[in-house]
Structure prediction request, 282 residues.
Amino acid sequence: MIVLRLVLGGLFLFSSFGKLRYPRIFAESLLAFNLLPAGLVTLVALALPWLELLAGLFMIAGYRYRGSALTLGALSLLFVFVLSSAVWKGLDISCGCFVGVDWMTVDWWHILANLLLAAIAGLIFRKGPGVLAVESGP
Amino acid sequence: MVPAIQKRTLTSVALLVGLSLMLGLGSNIFRTQPLPLFEPLPSLFPGELSLKETFRHFRRKDATLWDVRSAVAYERGHVPGALPVDRVPQKGKLIIVYCSSRLCPKAQDRAGELRSKGYREVLVMPDGIKGWHAAGYPIEKSEP
Prediction:
């Protein structure tokens, strides 16, 4: 369980760094999906990376693991929806997963990866954080 | 009645969302170029040039264009006359830095480095080579 916690938390943590450093670029990548009203894009671009960072840190530490698992699971499912809509519309755009990696375009592999992350979050939510965690399991 | 464990879970989620909003909005205030809230993102920020303006400088040959993508990407196609990433432009002329697209942060980073080294006229073309190509402007390929 600790490996799953590190993979899930670490991935979101890593993904947040570029978005925190370049919020404008992240906002531009969000705009390309055509899902959010233009006035809300900035707010999401500013807050979402912090949510990834904090939930990722909580997950790695095993602190409030259910809350962080729920948050990261919900984010992964949200990304599944967003990426699926882009694939459905046939948009050839960057997935926005990691800022600065503009060659990573949306495809079914990213959708599958996010489904896997959601499943990992669900598993941690149910089974507990395992060893080396601030909090013990259910 | 929500069980205690569920309450704690929901409290954790609310805490994470609340903290993220506060940190996101708070950090934006301290940025040199804060993002505008609740309004569309401007296409150009201060220190940036549109494709049309860049093309004007390109035609007049009064600016040095600096392609900060990888050497391989440069060889595949670049703005004619643009310098590759390993050839840092000389001072004294307007420098226009570009990368691949609006999603590439390298142009802003390199422009910032030049400014910190005392270069006065440094601008960024945020649309990058993709925007340049899409607008129908000329592209030059390096011989292998």
